[in-house]
Amino acid sequence: MLTGALLILAPLFLGFALMLENRRIMTVIHHGVEVLVYFILALLGLGLGQMDGLASQLGGMAVQVLILVMMLFLFNMLGLWAFHRWQPLVVAKNATDGTTGYRRLFMAGLKPLLAVLAGLLAGYYLLPEMPMAEQVATWSLMLLLFLIGVQLRNAGLSLRRLLMNRQGLGIAMALTASSLLAGLALIPVLALPWHDVMALVSGFGWYSLSGIVIGDALGPAWGGVAFLNDVLREIIALAIIPLVIATRPAMAIGYGGATAMDFTLPVIRSSGGLECVPVAIASGFLLSFLSPILMGVFLSLG
């Protein structure tokens, strides 16, 4: 089980406490985050590639990912639909500006998969066994969380203002609650201890976090399942946002999870208009904080 799981929270909050005003430093941090994400994903793939019996486990992993994605999609959409019925967000008609390059966004969504695939192939065919890879991945993740905390703190966003955004807070809570309910339903299906299943459903689209944290705790196979589940959430969100945001904006914004404040935000903006932007940022920001907290808490129970 993950030793000291709650320690992953320390660098996030430490980074959030650090206020920087130097734009050059923030630019370096931005590029550092991007490099670290792909480095961590490559290490995740490396762990998968060097896993004993990889070929025999791929079929089982595919089934587990499919079950996770389908169950979370069902529960999340029902929970977000219920919130929409309770607190509807009205989106202006003809809000779309048609400027978002969806092909470019979909290709960007495939980059994490390519990073993992590159690591997997290198680990399976080229590199000798690297016992230090897991420790390197853990320290890299802690550095990544610290830098993300710095980014969040210096993004001009007040935590108090974000918490006062009722729509954003409600969407984040609806996604969290519905994901945890899906986790309860998945306990007998996945045949894992309840706390491990609850950690597995708490990624909220943050694939670089969930893949490494779950992989460290439950092994590379489950780390791969967590990663694929969360990266597929991001890709599915890109497809459904333009289709449902005009009539069910809470469902469109919420399903993307933590990505609503960054990766899926351009699609939300172009499809739903400016009034959706603060809601999406608030929801994504809060889910970005809740994800490591929930995973750390649940995994520490093992």
From TrEMBL:
Pfam families: Lys_export. InterPro entries: LysO (IPR005642). Keywords: Membrane, Transmembrane, Transmembrane helix. One of its GO terms (cellular component) is plasma membrane. It comes from the Bacteria. The chain crosses the membrane at residues 6-23, 35-55, 61-84, 105-127, 139-157, 169-192, 204-228, 235-257, 277-301. GO terms for molecular function: L-lysine efflux transmembrane transporter activity. Signal peptide: none annotated. PANTHER family: LYSINE EXPORTER LYSO. This is Lysine exporter LysO family protein. It comes from Marinobacter salinexigens.
